[in-house]
Amino acid sequence: MNSLTYKLIAKDFQQHRLLIAGTIAIGLVSLLVAGGGTTLLFNLGMLCWLTAIAAYGCVVAMLGIATERKERSLLFVLSLPLGYGDYVRLKLVGLMLCFFVPWAVLTAGAVVLVLAAQGMPDGILPFTILLCGFLLTNFSMVLSCALFARSEGVMTLSIIVHNIAISIFIFLIGPIPAFRDHLQDPAPTWGSEFWTVLAVEGAVFVVICSLPYFVAARRRDFI
Question: Which terminus of the chain, N or C, has less C-beta within 10 A?
């Protein structure tokens, strides 16, 4: 990676710095609310926490790629000594890092909440970690779609799928006995089901992040 590469990645951080800080702030406040000691506060806080991460992922993909293409600022980037494949790799790495920072902070905050909050069973920790892993994988899908998409309609559809997928994941994983039956346990249970789901999330994440390298990077027109 040369100096130009670092500067372009830093540009993404500079462009989204307020969104990153705002998402972290909203997420941490939501976790404080969730630790308020009542079921209502927990549900409200976790809903806001989840919404903050999911919404930020959609916004950063739209602003970082779709809006840049629409406003033709991409023309300036491509006028630099960069190939089309270089652009795809830079955007994938830069925006993934922009998402990873608040995601990592808020994931760590959720883990600390579960372990430190009095009256909150540690048995929900495995499900919490899997949900956080899914949010990262789900964002990689939106980011890859933004690199592939040539129209706002396709991008909008990917965001709708992104939002629906979170609910589907919760509905599919939540009822599994290995998770459902241990949510109220005083200690987390790391069964084979947990590691299987985590491995699937990791594999899907790698595959989705690899697709732009092999497909989008070979395109000759990003405008």
Answer: C
Residue 67 identity: T
Asked whether residue 147 carries a pLDDT value surpassing 60, the answer given is: yes
The letter for the amino acid at 151 is S
pTM for this predicted structure: 0.87
CA 111 → CA 33, 120, 174, distances in Å? 15, 11, 18
What's the DSSP call for residue 80?
Answer: S
User: Tokens for 182?
Assistant: 């241990």
Q: Radius of gyration of the chain from Cα atoms?
A: 19
Contact residues for 17 (Cβ-Cβ < 8 A; gap 6+): none
Residue 191 is given by DSSP the state -
Per domain, the residue ranges of the chain are 3-218
Both tokens assigned to 28: 């941490």
The span from the first CA to the last CA of the chain, in angstroms, equals: 24
